[in-house]
Amino acid sequence: MERVELMLRQHVGAPCSPIVKVGDEVKRGQLVAVPTGLGANIHTSVSGIVKDITDISIVIDAFDEQSPDYIPIKETDDYLEAIKEAGIVGAGGAGFPAHVKFKTDLKGGCFIANAAECEPLLAHNIAYLEQNPDVIIRGMKYLMEITNAKVGYIAIKVKHLNAIKAINKALKPEDNISIKILPDMYPAGDERVIVREFTGVELKPGELPSAANAVISNVETIKNVTLAIEQRKPVIDKDLTVAGRVRGAKEGKVFFNVPIGYPVKKYIEKAGGYLEPHGEIILGGPFTGKHGEETSPIVKTLGGIIVAMPFPQEKRKVGILACECGAQEERLREIAAGMGAQVVAERKCKRMVEVNGRWRCEKPGVCPGQASTVLDLKREGAEVILTGTCGD
């Protein structure tokens, strides 16, 4: 039996409450935990026996033989109810419960599918669009109906030519959905960048796309909407990219429909195993991902499993320059510790402002000059600068 760990908090909001107990036999697709407030249903991705339940997870011993079949969500003609029952959250990393996000009236505004695949190395959204553009288009039509959007756009970078060709072919019968090209820059997939590029509206830090009469959703989230409505499938699988110091996956290897809850090591091994030397595992993208372990379970919001190079060792004194588009202070300090470096000073990008306890960028993708900030760090003893991403 393999160990599968279903985290009780795979979304924005409070952890879910288990509705199973230790010793129960569960079947793939079965509802095992429900929200206690803002949140999303959690279903088991495997059939097996509940081994343990903690404050943070449900552990299941998966049977050796697994069927792709699943227990469907309840029948409903209400699209929003199907999304809620399926436990859909933002699959691009944010994890906001989709049934809450999509409960809005755009009064003829626009619905935008975010196909930017913004972080380097990640490739699963584009790969899915190349193979299944019709699934995404159908999902957009459902969501345009739910949100009362008049038009739909698929936001994609021009370099993804195969995906664009596939989408254009699938779009021929549609007259209110079209492709919009994003600049090939980071972070082109940021919602405020997309709104700025498509509508000319400059959203304030913390302001939602709805302020520009738009709703934006990640490609995989839209895929999950289609599957929930048409196949009554709950969110039990995840699309992933494995990349970095991995045999056969240096430039990225895509896995579709990976059962949620398996440890990330399983898919590092499936991709070919480690290339030596290797360093830490990053969960997410290179810029905004977090440190992970081999035992870290796959969750609804995970898009990338990246195996990094070993940290170079640094004896000089380090100054940290944090920004929203890349690593913020906590992650940069973690990296500095891995380098054996002493952090002597910290600054935030000049565009960073605090909004509701979180530091946000005033104008993502448009980096200001940092000369004065660098001089401040130098005056405080920094000999080198450690930053996540900066166009300056």
TrEMBL record:
> What positions does the domain RnfC Barrel sandwich hybrid occupy?
3-58
Which keywords, in A-to-Z order, does the entry hold? 4Fe-4S, Electron transport, Iron, Iron-sulfur, Metal-binding, Repeat, Transport
What does the record give under GO molecular function?
A: 4 iron, 4 sulfur cluster binding; electron transfer activity; metal ion binding
> InterPro entries this protein is in?
Ion_transpt_RnfC/RsxC (IPR010208), Nuo51_FMN-bd (IPR011538), Nuo51_FMN-bd_sf (IPR037225), PR_assoc_PrdC (IPR031001), RnfC_N (IPR026902)
Query: GO cellular component annotations, sorted alphabetically?
Result: membrane
Q: Which residues form the NADH-ubiquinone oxidoreductase 51kDa subunit FMN-binding domain?
A: 83-226
Classification via PANTHER family:
ION-TRANSLOCATING OXIDOREDUCTASE COMPLEX SUBUNIT C (PTHR43034:SF2)
Q: What is this protein called?
A: Proline reductase-associated electron transfer protein PrdC
* Organism annotation: Lutispora thermophila DSM 19022
